[in-house]
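User: What would this chain look like folded?
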Amino acid sequence: MRKLPPTPNLTALLALAALAELFLYRITKAIFLPSQDGTATERWLAGVALFTSHFSGILALILAVVALVSALGGDQVFPRSMRITVSTIGLFFCALASIGVLWTLAPQYNVHLRISHAFLTMFLALGLWHGERPLRMKVGITLFALPIVIQAFLVFSLRMGWVQTGPGLLARLAHIMTLTAMMAAPFLLTQGSWSRLRVALSVTSGLLLAAGFAAALLTRFDLVQAALFYGLSIDLNGLASTAEKLYSTSLVVAFASLAAAIVGSLVGSARSRLGGWGLMLIAVAGAEITSPKPALFTLCGLLALVISGTRHTSPLATTDSPLLPPPAAPSSLT
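Assistant: Here's the prediction, encoded as structure tokens.
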């Protein structure tokens, strides 16, 4: 029997589009392309970067809406007791995200976007602990979810005037928690058995990224600093003091570990690949949610991770789901 072509995986497409948006729009356009009219090549690259940004945002919006609607139809992601609250907050968040992706979201509504996104993330983490999933996955996903909630609380506190200075201890705690989640991702968020090839690919990718990142820090620190700031909202001060060196080392280890987890997941089963694409979406969103697109990326990424860890069949784990591709068709009849 002729083997059928695989069904497109929208989560994989979104993850690749978000990765392209990170490098082309947030990094290349902000650092290397002039703000005014440049050469024909520069204008062409700016147009490609802008198209990638719009495409990834629209695709993330569509996938987030479909995934939330599907998740609310069952009990595997959100318990029945959360449905009314999650549907109300989800509708509000999707409305604000739609305005931000399709038009321009007014700055005063960005706080509302972050708060609604934080509530969705919090309910997703609570539903995660309610379901039947491995404990290590519950811990790993929660480590990625809690910093989003903490950052939104800090933004709301500053807006209400509860604190007059910078974010301080809570912001550092959220950042440390994110780095911890990245370092622990290979142990907490990967699924399936590990063959020798899978281990080799995962370890090799992590070591290569660590070597390249460390070399770039030592040779072109200014370029790495700008790329991290504009691309991932990470502020890297320098390499002079011991604290700065320790922080830079922790970044290298965190990104290398996350790369190893993503590669290890992508060479696994269908559910493992779904988790890998979810990790990639969370990684490219950045350390802080500053606009609708990163918020949509993280929401889709967290949903993909939660769905990939379900032990039983759910409405999101069917072949009709936009997040999970159907199993490959057999090549012959038995």
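The chain is about 70% helix and 0% strand. If you want, I can go into more detail on any region.
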